[in-house]
Specification:
The protein contains 14 helices and 16 strands. The chain has about 425 residues and is α+β, with helices and mostly antiparallel strands. The chain has two domains: about 210 residues, Enterococcus faecalis V583 domain (Enterococcus faecalis V583 fold, Alpha-Beta Complex), CATH 3.90.1710.10; about 170 residues, v583 domain like (v583 fold). Strand 13 and strand 14 form a beta hairpin.
């Protein structure tokens, strides 16, 4: 007879004790397991072109134009629908990507190594705010930005990361949480710490002071600079907890703009999916919920690892971006203790007397309490090319946790 409590303790201990370190930057084709020239990775569970949302379709088009495989949207669509280009989830390749999450073969990706357990994870570069590929934009301004990032910034960033000896992302996150971040939608402190760690090496690696200045400014002006390596770090933590027989701990939460999917440690690589919901939050002037796409992105890996919406009590200022009050931020974290197995040993919350963040979503507790995970998220316009129109909070559908629990009972003979 399996011991669920023991299995969950092992899974969460592995998740917490994982020490993800940013060790390098490489070309996706060269470093991501199973990456191919005819493959595009995307956020969330598996999906077809026909069911893909506007932002995801736009990012696919933009990536194929960036790769030189298509000249325009029509040609890109023909490539995908003909089967010449395949679509697979980032999560199937040890990777994650924010929003649409589209990663193509020649894109640069961060390389995270879990020094405790040896597994690796990957994430693409963050483009910053405005009209960007991850929100489905693909015009020439987007392409020009991508070319600069990959031709100019990426080689220097690679050299800087290697010269630094690596950046301990778990330690960076622990400090950032004490500085007002929650690690998902608010990464201002973490991005400053990231820039501080890399700046001396960027200055040395750049061929001129002008290039160094451009790169430092690009990273410094982007309060989400650290999000992508943080996501990869959380992926490395969660993957370390995956595959524990008898564990009911969630090790993946992800959305593709159509479906919200989870995977559970003790149930292998099976996805449990349901409809992704439109977030509730604050919209930029001129936009409303009618303009919003259902939630999208792999960034829910942060909540899976015990930060993001689960750590909102560390970041009361986040409510000015996602709506609510500072008290709501604390109450959100308190609610998440109801559905998690343990508290984090390294991610702690000053406002709660340095209590560890709620960690290890337990599908049993979700179903028993009727409480689903709380997620901080950006809101994308439902049409490709418009971009972010707000930010807010969202929950996954309860049905996916119920389905997972039934599957668990069948798998283990309960």
């Amino acid at each position: 007879m399996i011991n669920i409590e023991q299995a969950n303790r092992e899974a969460t201990d592995r998740m917490i004790e994982a020490r993800p370190v940013l060790v390098g930057l490489g070309r996706a084709l060269d470093v991501i397991p199973g990456m191919r020239e005819d493959l595009l990775l995307h956020a969330g569970p598996p999906i077809t072109w026909e069911r893909a949302s506007g932002p995801l379709k736009g990012a696919i088009i933009g990536a194929l134009i960036f790769e030189g495989k298509a000249r325009d949207a029509a040609e890109a669509e023909r490539l995908v629908t003909s089967g010449q280009i395949r679509l697979e989830p980032c999560h199937h390749h040890q990777a994650v990507g924010p929003m649409a999450g589209v990663t193509s073969p020649s894109m640069a990706v961060y390389i995270i190594e879990n020094k405790t357990h040896g597994n690796r994870a990957f994430s693409n570069l963050n483009e910053g705010y405005g009209k960007v590929l991850r929100y489905g934009a693909y015009d020439e301004s987007v392409q020009a930005r991508l070319r600069w990032m990959h031709e100019v910034m990426a080689p220097i960033l690679r050299d800087a990361i290697e010269a630094s000896g690596g950046i301990d992302i778990r330690a960076l996150l622990a400090e950032a949480l004490h500085m007002g971040d929650e690690g998902h939608n608010r990464n201002k402190a973490g991005s400053v710490l990231f820039l501080k760690a890399l700046a001396p090496y960027i200055a040395k690696a750049a061929p001129s002071s002008e290039v160094a200045s451009d790169i430092l400014k690009a990273i410094g002006d982007n309060a989400l600079s650290v999000l992508n390596p943080v996501m990869a770090a959380c992926k490395a933590m969660a993957d370390a907890a995956h595959g524990i027989q008898g564990s009911t701990i969630v090790t993946t939460m992800a959305r593709n703009g159509t479906d919200f999917g989870i995977r559970v440690s003790g149930l292998g690589d099976r996805w449990f999916t349901g409809p992704s919901q439109v977030p509730r939050g604050l919209y930029f002037p001129g936009f409303s919920a009618e303009d919003a796409n259902p939630d999208i992105g792999d960034s829910t890996i942060t909540e899976t690892a015990g930060i993001g919406g689960f750590a909102m009590a560390t970041a009361p200022a986040i409510v000015t971006f996602v709506s609510g009050t500072p008290k709501d931020a604390i109450n959100t974290t308190l609610e998440m203790y109801e559905i998690t197995f343990t508290e984090h040993r390294y991610f702690t919350i000053p406002a709660l007397d340095f209590r560890g963040t709620p960690t290890g979503i337990d599908i049993r507790k979700v179903v028993e309490t009727g409480i689903t995970p709380r997620i901080n998220t950006g809101i994308a316009h439902k049409e490709a090319g418009i971009g972010q129109i707000g930010a807010g909070l969202v929950r996954p559908p309860m049905s996916i946790f119920e389905e997972a629990l039934v599957a668990f009972a069948e798998e283990y003979g309960f």
